[in-house]
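Reopening this one. Same input as before:
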Amino acid sequence: MDLDFTIWRVTMDPHRIIYSTILLMTAYAIYNEGTEPLTTRPYLELGALSLAPLFALSMAHVFSDALDLQIRKGRRLTNHDRRHLLAANLQYMYIAIPPIVLIVLLSLFHMPATDVIRVVLVLGLLSLGWWGYYAGRKAGVPVLRRWIFALNYSFMGAVVIGIELLLTH
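Same output, byte for byte:
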């Protein structure tokens, strides 16, 4: 069963979106943003922080998927294969767009950088909760159970970030 969905003519795979959300939230959690309002340099740092890990993730998957495809098919990649691999794995990068836009918008209000990152992290946890609710809906569970799924997945995201913080700070 295909669970991909389309937003503005861009097809997205929930697995890739959820995976990159968790990775990006972890990167934001370990970033030392300081307490001052954002200036030009932190904007560049946050832009790089938003894109670099997701680019590395995307390229790692392109590489491994290309090898996997060649091994499974027993042939060289065609141009169609390459385009498909690139499009499929660019999905890991899409998740950087909403936080970057949000960071820029919140910084216009001269919010301290720590608060900006906290807002982004809370929204990331809420998005994981939404995915939990969506998974419950797809599993056909009752509405109350869907909310339990949502809380569990948000909590699991918080645990992943917490463990990362413990290991890095």
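So the earlier flakiness isn't reproducible anymore. For the record, The CA atoms of residues 20 and 92 lie 6 Å apart.
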